[in-house]
Amino acid sequence: MSNTDIPNEAVITSYAKAPARTVSAGGVSYAYRELGPKGGIPVVFFVHLAATLDNWDPRIIDPIAKGRHVIAFDNRGVGASTGQVPDSVEAMADDAYTFIKALGYDKIDVFSFSLGGMVAQALVVKHPDLVRKLVLTGTGPKGGKDMDKVARITYWDILRATLTRSDPKEFLFFNRNATGKAAGRAFVNRLKERTVDRDAEIKTKAFQTQLKAIKKWGRSAPDDLSSITQPTLIANGDNDRMVPSVLSEDLHRRIKGSELIIYPDSGHGGIFQYHQEFAPVAVDFLAR
């Protein structure tokens, strides 16, 4: 039976309406949401620093979920998932592996953003057979130049946002020009489209531990990314203050055959600012 035989109302393709679920593995209860037609290889979304399930842009997830089974999750100690956040990216990748296996999958596509992209790299280096395709956005490689400065920039922008009563993401993800400010406000508003069954906020300690893990990742010896043979799509804005845009170019050089998109006049959240251009590219890449 093909997906087209299933009546439309049976398949939820709106992230705002995706049911909240949990699965237990290794003493941790993992919170996740799933949407889109079941069957085939799922696309698993790896979220950014300080983010929970409520931080995915529906304009990116919904177009992918039209044709694919999509799973977004809170890793250990994040949002509604139990346990403690690990202090290394590699341990986060181990937890992600535990979660994916608990759902019974042997093959997935990965869509990742920022810290999620670091976790995705660690996962694919350790478990190459698990991942079929890889989307790395707003991220950089282990040992990447200036990656260890993320914490400093993050705290500074949280302070700036607090003083102006804005969402820190408006500062961290977008340029502070007219275009960037408008894109930032629009993005933050889209994240509020889900009104019921929202996720638990990330705890301060969990956030601080994630920052520690990123710093450690930035100061570690690089991984050999030439071992990544999966089709890989890399995207970022041209002015990423959090994870410098040059690191996307670095990833592109080191992952053979990868595709790179750099969006003009945009920052860390370039894919969200350019969601109308980027979503179809991601859909096409994952469908090929």
From TrEMBL:
Pfam families: Abhydrolase_1. Keywords: Hydrolase. The keyword Electron transport does not apply. One of its GO terms (molecular function) is hydrolase activity. Residues 43-272 form the AB hydrolase-1 domain. It comes from the Bacteria. This is Alpha/beta hydrolase. It comes from Streptomyces resistomycificus.
